[in-house]
Amino acid sequence: MRGDTADIRHDWTHEEVAAIYGLPLTELVFRAQAVHRQHFAPDELEACVLLNIKSGGCPEDCAYCSQSARHDGPQKKGTPMLTVAEVRTAAREAKQRGATRFCMGAAFRAPKQRQLEQAAEMIVAVREEGLETCMTLGMLDEAQARFLKQAGLDYYNHNIDTSPEYYGEIITTRSMEDRLTTLRAVAAAGINICCGGIIGLGETRADRISMLHLLATLPAHPASVPINRLVAIEGTPLANATPPEPFEMVRTIATARILMPRSRIRLAAGRREMSDEAQALCYLAGANSIFLGERLLTTGNPAPDDDEKLFHRLGMKLQVHTEAN
Asked: What are the tens digits of pLDDT across the range 55-100?
């Protein structure tokens, strides 16, 4: 990472964020790319792999999620957690594919102690394979966050999903404040935060601006900011949602890059449904992190060969691997 922290702000006003988001697209992308080059190599992508370590049966009612027990999605019923041996094997394969971070997700509202202990064993195993670790296990309190930190967890993912104003239209079983409480617990434990949102939930442009404003005014910017494009899944309330306009993805990513200059902006779920040209614009706008592999938690991802061909055409490369501390 390059550059200094002189341009890092946490006092963005809502009006400033709206003005940036609403710039002519060419000007917005130009500014975002200029900021990006101050802190990152312009041709380099961070590669992560995401593994579902416990799917389905979640008591939450997130309208986009096929793992909710309240919907009729394909992962309505829960499955047991994977074994440590299974996770280690997947991590080893991920490193061979060029990943530097291994992300593990479980469909919990909040983990129980035994589940945390299993997660801790997985963290140790993945770090022994030389990869950074990230987990998403639902809500945490401060003691749980400290427990994961002691196990060696590098990052914790807990997305805010959308704006505070639209949040209740998407999720009713937990509040935005619940999510922020978890983020505060993770930060207090000294774990890096991974936090972003989803585009295409039926939100307005004003909601996207509000979501970015919230992220950019956290006490510390998330180290990673995943921007997801909704993948509509049969059986969920958003199964028939209208796909987001590609340029809105570009605008969201470019604005995030300007607001949070040193964060990794991840072009996350929904990448398979985007054209090569749309992906290229997102990278130009400052996205510099992706998930590798044909499967995310429950949705598809571009095939490795497709990614390799696109990155070759764009002259981009994956971040050089460094051993986890």
From this structure: 777 888 898 888 787 777 555 566 788 999 999 999 999 999 889 9
- At 307, is the secondary structure helix, strand, or coil? helix
Torsional class of 172: left (φ above 0), alpha (ψ -120 to 50), beta (otherwise): alpha
Question: Per-residue pLDDT averaged across 1-16, rounded?
Answer: 80
Question: pLDDT tier at 325 (50, 70, 90 boundaries)?
Answer: very low
| DSSP β-ladder status, 192-194 and 197-199 | unpaired
Q: Is the pLDDT of residue 32 over 50?
A: yes
Structural domains of the chain in order of their starting residue, each with its CATH number? 14-312 (3.20.20.70)
Q: Torsion over CA of 290, 95, 306 and 34, rounded to 10 degrees?
A: 30
Residue 324's pLDDT band (boundaries 50, 70, 90)? very low
Contact criterion met (CB below 8 Å) for 273 and 30: no
Active-site option among 62, 195, 229, 282: 62
DSSP per residue over 88-107, as a string? HHHHHHHHHTT-SEEEEEE-
134 φ, ψ (degrees, to nearest 5): -140, 145
Q: Judge contact between 237 and 71, C-beta under 8 A.
A: yes
Q: Please indicate whether residue 9 is annotated as part of the active site.
A: no
Which of the residues 48, 65, 195, 282 is marked catalytic?
Answer: 65
Q: Which of 31, 48, 58, 179 is catalytic?
A: 58
Of 188, 210, 106, 73, the C-alpha closest to 141 is 188
Whether the predicted model's global pTM rises above the 0.90 cut: yes
Is 266 catalytic? The answer is yes
Q: Identify whether 282 is a catalytic site residue.
A: no
Give me the DSSP letters along 113-171: HHHHHHHHHHHHHHHHTT-EEEEE-S---HHHHHHHHHHT--EEE---BS-TTTHHHH-
